[in-house]
Every structure is written in C-alpha cells, then in structure tokens.
C-alpha cells in the first residue's frame, strides 16, 4: 500500500497547549490539521471533510471520547482511523476500539504519534471519490 507523506488530520483536543503543540508539529510537516476543541465540533468537521486520521482526546468538555468515537464510527461516509490521545478510558477498558484504531500511550511522544498516524493512514480504506 502506498504511504502518503502529507496527511489530512482532525485533532479533537480541549487543552490549548497540547493542541497548539500538536498542530505546530504536524503543520510543520506539511500536514493539514483541522482543530476541534469540543466533541460536537469534531463530529461536525468529520462529517464535512475526509480525513486520513482522527486524533481524539478522551476528555472533551461536551462529550466523552467514547461518544465522539461512536459518532464518528456511525457516519455513512468513509470513516478514518482514530488515534486516541491520553486515553485513560481506553486503558481502563471502557472503550473497545474497532480494528485499525489505536491508543497513543504518551501524548508527548511526537515521533510515535507521527509514526502511528502514517501507519493508520496507510492501512485505512481508500477515500471514496465523489460523483
């Protein structure tokens, strides 16, 4: 499978410092990053655009990470793979991840995040072409 070097990423993160750091690093790689500070905004953005990967914080102010995850997975369009950030809920077994989704053990490990994003995007189903 061909690995894309430039990815389209949806970042759902309510901590401004973490969001800014991740966004700066990923845009520095030439990636496109759309940012959502709430679960509702993340779901809305995912419904409007195709993403290669969704980076999802487990603790958003209006919805739990699990609620956002399930809302994204229930969409009728191409569903991108999800990489959970700081997923205490996943670690405690509260969320069962679908095949192809992962948890990032350490949100400060940017190299691991980038590597996982590439791997997830490479194994994701191809984007549907609009008619």
SSE layout:
Blueprint: E1 8-12, H1 16-28, E2 32-36, H2 39-48, E3 53-57, H3 65-73, E4 82-85, H4 88-91, E5 102-104, H5 110-123
Parallel strand pairs: 1-2, 1-3, 3-4, 4-5
Please tell me about this protein's structure:
- The protein is built from five helices and five strands; from the N terminus they run βαβαβαβαβα.
- With 131 residues, it is α/β, with parallel strands linked by helices.
- Strands 2-1-3-4-5 form a five-stranded parallel β-sheet, with helices on both faces.
- α2 (39-48) packs parallel to α3 (65-73).
Strand content: 15-25%
The major sheet is characterized as: 5 strands, parallel
Average pLDDT, all residues: 86
Q: Give the overall silhouette.
A: globular
Give the % helix.
Answer: 25-40%
Distance N to C terminus = 24 Å
Give a quick summary of the entry.
The protein is an alpha/beta fold and 131 residues long. The protein has helices at 16-28, 39-48, 65-73, 88-91, 110-123, and strands at residues 8-12, 32-36, 53-57, 82-85, 102-104.
Main features:
131 residues; alpha/beta; Rossmann fold; 5-stranded parallel β-sheet; 38% helix; globular
């Amino acid at each position: 499978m061909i690995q894309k070097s430039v990815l389209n990423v949806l970042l759902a993160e309510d901590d401004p410092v973490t969001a800014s750091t991740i966004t700066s690093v990923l845009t520095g790689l030439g990636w496109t990053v759309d940012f959502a500070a709430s679960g509702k905004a993340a779901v809305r953005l995912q419904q409007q655009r195709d993403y290669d990967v969704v980076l999802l914080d487990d603790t958003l102010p209006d919805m739990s990470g699990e609620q956002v995850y399930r809302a994204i997975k229930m969409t009728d369009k191409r569903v991108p793979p999800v990489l959970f950030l700081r997923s205490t809920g996943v670690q405690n077994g509260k969320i069962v991840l679908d095949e192809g989704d992962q948890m990032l053990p350490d949100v400060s490990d940017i190299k691991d995040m980038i590597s996982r994003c590439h791997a997830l995007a490479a194994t994701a189903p191809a984007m549907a072409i609009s008619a």
